[in-house]
Amino acid sequence: MSSHREAPEISKDPVADSTDVYAFVSPDRPDTVTIIANYVPLQDPASGPNFFEFGDDVEYKIHIAPTLGDSRDEITYSFRFSTRVPNPNTFLYITGPVTSLDSPSYNRPQTYSVTRRSRQRNRTQATGLKVPPCNVGPRSTPDYVGLAEDAYYDLPDGGRVFAGQRADPFWVDLGSVFDLGALRPFQNLHLLPMGAMSGINTLSQVNVHSIVLQLPISSVTRNRDNPSDPMDHDSTIGVWTSASRAKNRTFDEKLDRYVSTGPMAQVSRMANPLFNEVLVPMSRKDSFNNSTPWGDSQFAGGVARPELAGLLPVLYPGVFPNLQGYTKERADLLAILLTGIPGGVVPGFQNYTGPTQADMLRLNVAIPPATDPNPLGIVGGDLAGFPNGRRLTDDVVTIELRAIAGATIPLVDPSFTPDGAAALVTDGSTPTPVLDGFPYVNVPYSGFDVPAA
């Protein structure tokens, strides 16, 4: 999956686990950019009495690099959460119908603050913003849509923000992919063949916690303007997310809870989907989560010679002969994932951020939203899609599988002819529905309606 359990240590700490990040020019407000940071993966909707929430001891961040150069974050939005327990004498998360965010029946209400930090100044954008409860069921949260809409907040710089539980928009046939690289639509061609069948979306009924930040484009670009020329380097921004914890955590018997102290240390980060999951070796996954993008040249070897590209010809004998014979470093993947695509490779497009190798989503904000989005993004001829940022509807698993299988090599090496299967490979799973407008991520699945796993 994208980054739901991508490294040994963070898999033990789901509250701080960055699962996915999305960045796109808002289709209904094209003078803004929307960034969605998802955390707390694989939420079974029926997980009472201790339902899911953001961590009070975690600092969640959205990082933005607006200039061509060293890929350092010049703008950061920080989110800190605080939880109350109005009735400490009940075991219940919700004690009656919750019809408003201030309802006394909501027994673990969370609030949060938003702080924008830049080279010019640090500014608290908002405090005391409310998080809706989890979607427990029709008795506990009878109008969940309305309850969540009450948690959409305007920010002083013209932006909007929402934080709360949503349906996980990522889709992948996880059970098949990690069963020795099987792809159900093609598993009859696998080294250990089975009958072909449609893919299964493993995440079709699980939730995540989303932070949705919508900002004026002029607030995140180098010249504080709204670029219109896609070939202007100032039109591209880099985006990633992170989560940090205090280094010390002990149980306070007087307070009857854990208390975190000391300096904050990053424990998770996320940008391009499947980067740490697939391209970083097991022994270095935790180091990746603790590091910063501008030091990612240390992980470039896994991009230049991805292990999966070597496995595909072995797992699918005779299907990828051209890929098997390709011995050069993968300059196409290095550009797509670590530097951005320079001008002259894809007509009318670039999202190059300079020679510093860094795992970031790179979004060219001068590319307008597509009127008819193609889920294959740039591979499908849609310049508004992945790897130009990432939309909720982009089929990133198929895009990256095809890229690793060799479909994008001709962009930088015209002498290479991709195998026919490279343009057909997919995991075969189906997407999760999303919303047309803010916050774009769909209403979370209800614990009453979805059987426990």
Question: What can you see in these coordinates?
Answer:
This is DUF4331 domain-containing protein. The protein has helices at residues 144-149, 174-177, 275-279, 285-290, 300-304, 307-315, 321-324, 331-339, 396-404, and strands at residues 18-25, 32-43, 58-65, 75-83, 110-118, 122-131, 153-154, 160-167, 207-216, 236-252, 257-270, 361-364. With 453 residues, it is α+β, with helices and mostly antiparallel strands. The chain has a domain at 10-169 and 207-298. A hairpin with a 3-residue loop joins strand 5 (110-118) and strand 6. It is globular, with a radius of gyration of 22 Å. It starts with 17 loop residues before the first strand and ends in a 49-residue tail after the last helix. The mean pLDDT is 93.
Note the gap between the termini: 18 Å
Helix amount: 10-25%
Shape: globular
How would a crystallographer describe the biggest sheet?
Answer: 7 strands, antiparallel
Per DSSP E runs of 2 or more residues, the count of β-strands stands at: 12
User: Which band does the percent of strand residues land in?
Assistant: 15-25%
Which quaternary structure do these chains form? Answer: single chain
How large is the count of helical segments?
9
Mean pLDDT across every amino acid position = 93
Uncertain runs are: none
Helix/sheet category? alpha+beta
One letter per element, helices H and strands E, the order comes to: EEEEEEHEEHEEEHHHHHHEH
**Rg, Å, rounded:** 22 Å
